[in-house]
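User: My advisor, Dr. K., asked me to get a structural model of this assembly before our group meeting. I'm new to this, so sorry if the format is off. These are the inputs:
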Amino acid sequence: SQKIEQNSEALNIQEGKTATLTCNYTNYSPAYLQWYRQDPGRGPVFLLLIRENEKEKRKERLKVTFDTTLKQSLFHITASQPADSATYLCALDDTGGFKTIFGAGTRLFVKA
Amino acid sequence: SAVISQKPSRDICQRGTSLTIQCQVDSQVTMMFWYRQQPGQSLTLIATANQGSEATYESGFVIDKFPISRPNLTFSTLTVSNMSPEDSSIYLCSVAGRANEKLFFGSGTQLSVL
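Assistant: The format is fine. Below is the predicted structure of the whole assembly, which you can bring to the meeting.
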């Protein structure tokens, strides 16, 4: 069956450290993978997209990697801040990009 | 980018009643998507709404339970019909950005069914 898996356990880290979140998928062949941030009571907000032919993508303190052999994406937040505390969702395209499928998300807590 | 206004933001409803959720976008878009997010779970696509045609429903969702209207390129509604407590969830509308490579979301509707 098709699955997108993210760590269900919350990730607690100290301010200034690097947070690393994992997304694994099974039985999909995505052309790209996306990461979103969701705060309580709000809709998800798009952060980054990485294509299947890209190994790594960076945006400010964010870095995403994509390994199509391992079927895995890693999402890094460097120099983390308490304001980075949120749920982070990975998502991928299905059926040629007309449908986006989401993982359940990982809750990140950054302590001051 | 797209700005999406969704209302109501939350509602508490009685079993057996229906609720219509409205979604207004600040620009014309071809496809609008309706998602459901149950507590602690991922977003699940309910249906895709294209202007001028019937909505396309995902497995497990049917038109009689979740009728959708799409009267123009900036507006859509989702109705949750004959509600039961199992329908308690967050309902989100979204639109695709350029090349369908990102989604923009409304703030969601928190629905509780008693």
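One thing worth pointing out at the meeting: Chain B touches chain A at residues 4, 6, 31, 33, 35, 40-45, 48, 92, 94, 97, 99-108, 110 (CB under 8 Å).

User: Perfect, thanks a lot.
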